[in-house]
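Troubleshooting log. The previous structure file for this entry was overwritten by mistake, so regenerating from the original sequence record. Sequence copied from the archived sheet and checked twice against the printout by T.R.
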Amino acid sequence: MIRTAVLVGTLALLTACGSRTALKPQPGMTAVPRAAAARAPQTPGQLMTPSTQARPDRTVDLRTRSVERQPDPFDAPPGEKPAPLLPPDTTGPSVRQNQ
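Regenerated output below.
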């Protein structure tokens, strides 16, 4: 039992070892292929930096205190029609609605 544990531990340590040197392309290959619309190939640092689209700013979404939500007229169960956005105006001129 101890021999198995030592063997598994040794194998785990060996699998954790790896080459710590920088990766280099094989002879005859370029490091990074150039994109079709790019003027020059991107550097590894540019490829590793996430774009704004991949990591958008979240400062707008943060809430510092709880706020009561406004009623959503389109939050209706399936099969029901959504509530009208504005109450019908009975004082002004009649407005023809598409039905």
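The mean pLDDT is 75. Archived copy saved in two places this time.
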